[in-house]
């Protein structure tokens, strides 16, 4: 199925996966519930890893749910037409996923007690991961070259828009009681501590054994062989299984194997310019 692309309020989306009507519905009419937990990310920032962690926390570390129910059924994507239908029918408490930038997120979030977990990742690793995955997941435009993809990434000519706008927009909520942010790098460096912090935010108490079970069952190796989580069951209409897989390398710093010095310098210049307003430090060099 050939994709067409359209811009909705300045952000690129693919059709028929998304539509302006549904995006407007999600923004203006979708009712966020007080007990919703949203897993929010820019694409390729560790969405599925976080989803696995949240699914396991919900089950006190018991892997039964993640081994028996497909990830997108455990946590529907609110802005995707299939996910929206599922989210509307989903009994409370819902676990939901979204890549929407903050300005397109359901307005009803503001007057709810729903919790947002925002995971972000070194943008050069996001770029490299997305470059590979754009050849796999059909909603993304197939890149012509890494050079042209770099320019698209830097200018935000990407489905879901600019990484810079996404991150600066969502991190504007930092300090709000119901907003929690964490990096992919923190999850890698200290998985146990990260799971404990997520539990604390969710008001969930797990024993040391339960935390260990969350970490183990959400590990790259466990997810890689779990058909419910590795996208191997995704339809050919959405994913070209010949071209690659969701769980590619799962490491920090892979950009060093792909970006030239010139490309890295070009990235850094835009990064400094776009991120200077954020008085925050991140666990990566750009
Ligand atoms: P790479 O392409 O760098 O390997 P998303 O879920 O947001 O689409 O992000 C996918 C990226 O997260 C991929 O990165 C994938 O390998 C990585 N990933 C998925 N599950 C992971 C896990 N359990 N541990 C570490 N990385 C994981």
UniProtKB/TrEMBL annotation:
An example Gene Ontology molecular-function term: sulfotransferase activity
Family annotation (InterPro entries): P-loop_NTPase, Sulfotransferase_dom
Top enzyme category: transferase
Residues in Sulfotransferase domain copies: 34-278
Compartment(s): Cytoplasm
GO cellular component labels: cytoplasm
Predominant localisation class: cytoplasm
Parts forming coiled coils: none
Name of a matching Pfam family: Sulfotransfer_1
Enzyme Commission number(s) from the entry: 2.8.2.-
Family indicated by similarity: Belongs to the sulfotransferase 1 family.
Protein name per its UniProtKB record: Sulfotransferase
């Amino acid at each position: 199925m050939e994709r067409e692309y359209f811009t909705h309020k300045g952000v690129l989306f693919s059709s028929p996966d998304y539509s302006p009507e549904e995006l407007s519905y999600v923004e203006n009419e979708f009712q966020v519930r007080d007990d919703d937990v949203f897993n929010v990310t820019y694409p390729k920032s560790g969405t599925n890893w976080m989803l696995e962690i949240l699914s396991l926390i919900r089950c006190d570390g018991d892997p039964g749910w993640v081994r028996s129910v497909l990830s997108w059924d455990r946590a529907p994507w609110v802005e995707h037409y299939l996910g929206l239908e599922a989210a509307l029918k989903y009994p409370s408490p819902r676990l939901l996923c979204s890549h929407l930038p903050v300005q397109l997120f359901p307005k009803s979030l503001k007057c709810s007690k729903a919790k947002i977990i925002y995971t972000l990742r070194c943008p050069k690793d996001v770029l490299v991961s997305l470059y590979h995955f754009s050849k796999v997941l059909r909603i993304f435009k197939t890149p012509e070259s890494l050079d042209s993809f770099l320019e698209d990434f830097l200018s935000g000519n990407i489905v879901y828009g600019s990484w810079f706008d996404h991150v600066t927009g969502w991190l504007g909520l930092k300090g709000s009681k119901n907003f929690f942010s964490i990096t992919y790098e923190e999850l890698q460096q200290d998985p146990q501590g990260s799971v404990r912090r997520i539990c604390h935010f969710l008001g969930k108490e797990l024993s040391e054994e339960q935390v260990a079970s969350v970490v183990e069952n959400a590990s790259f190796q466990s997810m890689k062989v779990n058909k419910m989580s590795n996208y191997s069951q995704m339809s050919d209409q959405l994913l070209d299984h010949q071209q690659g897989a969701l769980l590619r390398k799962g490491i920090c710093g892979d950009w060093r194997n792909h970006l030239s010095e010139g490309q890295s310098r070009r990235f850094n210049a835009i990064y400094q310019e776009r991120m200077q307003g954020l008085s925050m430090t991140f666990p990566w060099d750009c």
